[in-house]
Amino acid sequence: MTSPPLAVVLNRRAGVGRAGHEWPRLRGELEALGVEYCLIDCDTPAEALTQARALPASWALATVGGDGTAASVLPEAIEGGRPLLVLPYGTGNDFAGTLGLRPGDFRSALRCLSRPPERVDALRVTYELDGTEQSAYVLNGLGMGFDAQLTAMLPLAPAWTRGAVRYVWAALGSLRAMQTNHCAVTLDGEPWASGPTMLCSVMNARTLGGGFQFNPDADLSDGQLNVVLAAAVHRREVPGLIARVRGGHHLTHPAVKYHPAQVAELRWDQPTYLHIDGEVRGQSRWLRAEVLSGAVTLLNQVG
């Protein structure tokens, strides 16, 4: 098999600690295919990014974990122009799900190395946190409001929960503390929505939370992001709305708005929880997201 040498970024804590145990199996697959590789095995995302940036120019990146693991080296994939291969073994695996990959199916992902890479979009987000402006790249999606509140609950979920079950557990646990703040959304410089808001997500890929189809019409190479907003609803309506999101049937709900754009700006009247690719960043009142068309060279097959 002809492929670039791969720097395998292993997140041993991904998949509730199971990803680290899968390394011998993945190593066997790489050696059986004759792929040159090295291992980046770090305790923190910052250390993984530092090692990725120090690689020779010809090396590509392969991430073993979930959306957060891919996000940890996304700056080097974009700024350094390194091809990226996603080998899913995280808790949610939402970006991999958009690609049609199952967690732990390393063989199917590695088969893509024999095919030409594809260019896919990413997002660049700028946001305010503790009075300072910060920025990040996004491969899958981000959310503010109830979605981010329940993401903050996920680490508290019982160990037996997986994927969508883990998301539902966190969602039901977040209902008692659910808050709706006023949010004003501008798309491509034009006002789009304003009012009491339960959540607002800015999406590149299809799903969040282990398979919930926030963005059922996702196209990773269309040069657009998609904004999903849910206005304030009564707590008793939330479980039904969650069920509709699971199947991607929520876009016809009267409280839901959905629209593509190239730039989205969110302004909240109160600090509101924010997650980026499933990682909670804190509370913010302002966020700007823009699409970076074709910014990532992806070694996985799309669709």
- Number of β-strand runs: 13
Q: Look at the helices and sheets and give the structural class.
A: alpha+beta
Tell me the span between the first and last alpha carbons: 22 Å
What's the level 1 CATH class of the largest domain? Mainly Beta
Textual characterization of the structure:
The chain has 303 residues and is α+β, with helices and mostly antiparallel strands. It has two domains: 110 residues, Rossmann fold (3-Layer(aba) Sandwich); 173 residues, Tumour Suppressor Smad4, CATH 2.60.200.40. Helix content is 24%, strand content 37%. It contains eight helices and 13 strands. Strands 5, 6, 7, 8, 9, 10, 11, 12 and 13 form a nine-stranded antiparallel beta sheet that branches. Helix 1 links the parallel strand 1 and strand 2. It starts with 5 loop residues before the first strand and ends in a 5-residue tail after the last strand. The mean pLDDT is 90.
List keywords for this structure.
303 residues, alpha+beta, Tumour Suppressor Smad4, 2 domains, nucleotide-binding, ATP binding, transferase, Diacylglycerol_kinase_cat_dom
What is the topological layout?
Layout: E1 6-10, H1 23-33, E2 37-41, H2 45-53, E3 60-65, H3 67-79, E4 84-88, H4 94-98, H5 106-111, E5 118-129, E6 132-138, E7 141-145, H6 146-153, H7 163-174, E8 181-187, E9 190-203, E10 225-231, H8 238-247, E11 256-261, E12 263-276, E13 279-298
Parallel strand pairs: 1-2, 1-3, 3-4
Antiparallel strand pairs: 5-6, 5-13, 7-9, 7-12, 8-9, 8-12, 9-10, 10-11, 12-13
Helix pairs in contact: 2-3, 6-7
Quickly describe the structure.
This protein has 303 residues and is α+β, with helices and mostly antiparallel strands. It contains 8 helices and 13 strands.
